[in-house]
Write a structure and sequence with these properties.
Elements (H helix, E strand, L loop, with lengths): L4 H26 L3 E3 L3 E6 L3 H5 L6 E10 L4 E8 H11 L11 H26 L4 E2 L3 E6 H10 L5 E12 L2 E12 H20 L1
Antiparallel strand pairs: 1-7, 2-7, 3-4, 3-5, 3-6, 4-8, 7-8
Helix pairs in contact: 1-4, 1-6
Length: 206
């Protein structure tokens, strides 16, 4: 599915609102000012996701994965390459820079950051779109980008699409680049876009 310019503008506006609240939540938790640059939003079939992700992450990636359910259901991922994950953990805590064999403290910090980002973002989506989501506990994985995408392709037979939200975090003057991916089946993607169009229409009437 290719988003129209109007749909893309509406999704970008919604994501901007969600990310500004997410940054505030993360700043409050860490005691550091966290800014999130204007996100880059696009939609792809799963088979075309790998080159698109290459604009934000490469090689080994740290992935925080959360499954969400409800009228719109799917998988949400926060992806950071290992260097970016190391920098983010180092900036936000004294847990030490993580590696592919990162310690328990660094893993805990990264999982908590992902938890905050995903829950805040999906929570704002739910509130504004008037869609009730349920969430599973997020899980942290360290794997290659190809293996992560392979698990998506194997995980279900339904034709699925990915909403890719590229983001740049600025923490204490340093930039960390990562992205959030929402993988949705055709039915859920249609419902999500319809909810966004309804939200945009309500916003213009208020």
């Amino acid at each position: 599915m290719i988003l129209s310019e109007e749909q893309k503008d509406s999704v970008t506006e919604l994501v901007n609102i969600a990310f500004s609240r997410t940054a505030a939540a993360l700043s409050e938790l860490t005691g550091n000012r966290v800014d999130l640059a204007v996100p880059d939003v696009s939609a792809y079939p799963i088979a075309e996701l790998l080159p698109a992700l290459g604009r934000f992450v490469r090689g080994e990636v740290a992935t925080v994965h959360q499954i969400f359910g409800g009228p719109v259901s799917g998988d949400a991922f926060l992806l950071l390459d290992i260097a970016g994950a190391a920098r983010l953990v180092d900036l936000l805590s004294d847990a030490g820079a993580p590696t592919t064999h990162m310690g328990a403290s660094a893993r805990e910090v990264l999982a908590e950051v992902g938890n905050i980002l995903l829950n805040a973002c999906l929570g704002v989506f739910g509130d504004l779109l008037q869609v009730r989501f349920t969430f599973t506990v997020p899980r942290l994985h360290l794997d290659s980008l190809g293996s992560m995408l392979g698990s998506l392709e194997i995980g279900g037979d339904e034709i699925r699409h990915a909403l890719l939200i590229g983001a740049r975090f600025h923490v204490r003057g340093s930039e960390v680049t990562g992205c959030m991916v929402m993988v949705l089946g055709v039915t859920s993607l249609d419902r999500f876009v319809e909810a966004i169009e309804n939200w945009a229409e309500r916003a213009t009437q208020s």
